[in-house]
Write a structure and sequence with these properties.
Length: about 90
């Protein structure tokens, strides 16, 4: 894996109870970078290229999300753009 200057910045954001969004061109190593950062941590991985994960996150209510996340402190959602309205903020 290539050394990424952003790796330490991403690592410094963990534990702040905020979402970390990583975006960029296809096939540049975004997923590989996050998997490397998380390799010794407990986390929930949801790949939205998988129809099952995509279905679980589409129109999920709060209780369903709580059940899905369980006790995980870190949730890694890969290919989140595949979920309709993933960034929608409700008021």
């Amino acid at each position: 894996m290539y050394i990424r200057s952003i790796k330490s910045e991403i690592e410094s954001k963990f534990g702040k109870k905020k979402a970390i969004v990583i975006f960029g061109p296809r096939q540049v190593g975004k997923t590989t970078l996050i998997e490397h950062i998380l390799e010794n941590k407990s986390y929930l991985f949801l790949n939205c290229d998988d129809p099952t994960a995509s279905s679980l996150l589409t129109n999920a209510n709060t209780e369903q999300l709580r059940a899905l996340i369980g006790n995980h402190k870190i949730v890694f959602i890969d290919e989140a753009q595949r979920i309709e309205n993933i960034g929608l903020t409700l008021k």
